Amino acid sequence: MHSFSAASYATEVKSQHFRLSKQARSLSTNRIHRLSDDEAFAEFCAVRFAENGGEPYCPWCGHTQVYSIRTRRKWRCKSKSCGRDFSATTQTIFASRKVSFQKLLLLIAYQSWVAKNINAIDMHCELDVQYKTAFVWCHKIREAITAHQHTGTMRGQIEVDGGYFGGYIKPKNSFPLRQDRRRLMRKEGKRKCVVIFRERNGRSRAFVCSESEAAHKAPEFIEPGSVVYTDDAVEYNRLAARYVLHKVNHSERYSDGDACTNWAESYFARLRRAEMGIHHHFSGDYLLNYANEISWREDRRRHPANENYEEMLRIALNRPGIAGGHLV
Questions:
Q1: Residues in domain ISXO2-like transposase (predicted)?
Q2: Would residue 6 count as lying in a domain?
Q3: Does residue 44 contact residue 310 with C-beta atoms inside 8 Å?
């Protein structure tokens, strides 16, 4: 009879999924639940004003000399040209919020820890807020992540692939009556193409557009000299003029030596499970944000949970295009 021991279990766990590792347990929502309102406020400010060592500065003009209005948890800029009041949430996606800082930290914790996403219905139950409040917060975080994912350039080995999401045409019960949904004239109008650009062992960036449009966008953020891997779609042929292009015919094989799009397919697998198992439906108006949120999760799938929590909080509090001036 096979004897089961703690040592044999530890050996098996080493080969199991990252979500079973110690790093995946480095974030505890119990710790956040135990925080007082003052402790949650201090943790929030430490990330919000990290550029100034956790000390508040004016988000409007960037001046570091401020007055403290302790009765209202606000500050006033000492600059004579500014002099405006501000709080820890001013110029962030949480501006004018009406809930505690503890719930804001819990919102980020739940969003950063889940593998494929968390829907607004579950979030409003976890945080004990209205469904509309949870819905708006979740989408604001997705918008911030999208802005973050679309910064900088990409280089090295990059895989490009497209997949269709949203919309659905229910097939007929009888096989002879079913339509060929691959034909353009019979495609559901709400069904849109998501194109992913993904560095091997690096970052990714998603677009909601046709593969032809994606090929035209590539020179805007992919550095010259990079190696690009695609399927045999003719839309990507134009990339050969600027990059080293390798293509693989998926109707014949999954990969051709080093040429494959397995990293891109891994992203689509997570996005499709998020659509089918978590949300059940992606609205076309928000598909870009859903797609880039999943790309962020794929990029950081093997990062410790506490690092993902801190990174998502930084993204939410320093969304590009929202944050104020520089420190002076």
A1: 153-299
A2: no
A3: no
